[in-house]
C-alpha cells in the first residue's frame, strides 16, 4: 500500500525527486514493456522460425524412423526371399524336364505292375501349361485287391518326382477285385525354348491390333 500511495503522490514532471521504490518500480515496468514490445515487433519472427525448425525436426525424426523400419523390413524380406528361393530350388529338382517325362510315366506304370495290379487304362492327356510349368494328367484304371491298391497309392507318393492322384473312385468288380479310377498328375518345368516361345506368344497376344 505504501508504494501505491507513493505512486499517487509523485509528480511525473520531476522524476528525479521520486522515491527510490518508485524509481525501481518504474524501471522494472519499462524493462517489462521493452520485452513485450521486442517480442511483438522483433522476436516474433524468430519465434516463428524456431517453431518451424521444431516442426521440421519432428518431421525429419519421423522420416528417419520410417526409413529405419523399412531398412529392417528389407533385411527380413531379403532373408525370406533367400529361404523361398532355396525351397523353390529344392522343389524344382523334384520336377522332371521334358526328356525325363517318358521315364516318369514308365515309373508310374511299373509301380502298379509291381503291386500285381492290372492296368485297364493308362492314357496320358495333352499337357496343360500353367506359368513356367506343364501339368501332365494321366487317366488310369487299375484292378486288384484292397491292399495292393493302397500300396500302389503309397508308392506313387514316394516317387522321386512329384506325382499326385486325383479324382479317385473305387468300385467293386464282378470277380471280387476292386477297381480304381483316378487321374494321376505330374508336372515338369518348361525348358528355355518353351519359355521363350511362351513369352513371345504372350507379347503377340498383348500387341494392339
UniProtKB/TrEMBL annotation:
InterPro entries: PilO, Transl_elong_EF1B/ribsomal_bS6. The chain crosses the membrane at residues 20-41. One of its GO terms (biological process) is type IV pilus-dependent motility. Keywords: Membrane, Transmembrane, Transmembrane helix. The keyword Transmembrane applies. PANTHER family: FIMBRIAL ASSEMBLY PROTEIN PILO-LIKE PROTEIN-RELATED, TYPE IV PILUS INNER MEMBRANE COMPONENT PILO. This is Pilus assembly protein pilo. It comes from Ferriphaselus amnicola.
Amino acid at each position: 500500500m505504501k508504494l501505491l500511495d507513493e505512486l499517487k503522490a509523485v509528480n511525473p514532471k520531476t522524476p528525479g525527486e521520486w522515491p527510490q521504490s518508485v524509481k525501481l518500480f518504474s524501471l522494472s515496468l519499462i524493462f517489462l514493456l521493452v520485452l513485450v514490445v521486442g517480442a511483438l515487433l522483433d522476436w516474433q519472427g524468430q519465434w516463428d522460425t524456431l517453431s518451424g525448425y521444431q516442426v521440421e525436426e519432428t518431421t525429419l525424426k519421423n522420416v528417419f524412423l520410417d526409413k529405419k523400419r523399412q531398412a529392417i523390413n528389407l533385411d527380413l524380406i531379403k532373408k525370406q526371399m533367400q529361404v523361398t528361393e532355396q525351397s523353390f530350388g529344392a522343389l524344382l529338382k523334384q520336377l522332371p524336364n521334358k526328356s525325363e517325362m517318358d521315364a516318369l510315366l514308365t515309373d508310374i506304370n511299373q509301380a502298379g505292375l509291381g503291386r500285381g495290379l492290372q492296368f485297364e487304362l493308362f492314357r496320358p492327356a495333352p499337357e496343360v501349361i500353367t506359368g513356367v510349368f506343364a501339368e501332365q494328367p494321366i487317366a488310369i484304371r487299375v484292378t486288384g485287391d484292397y491292399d495292393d491298391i493302397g500300396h500302389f497309392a503309397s508308392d506313387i507318393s514316394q516317387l522321386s518326382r512329384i506325382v499326385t492322384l486325383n479324382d479317385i473312385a473305387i468300385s467293386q468288380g464282378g470277380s471280387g477285385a476292386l477297381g480304381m479310377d483316378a487321374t494321376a498328375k505330374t508336372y515338369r518345368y518348361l525348358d528355355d525354348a518353351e519359355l521363350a516361345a511362351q513369352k513371345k506368344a504372350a507379347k503377340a497376344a498383348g500387341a494392339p491390333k
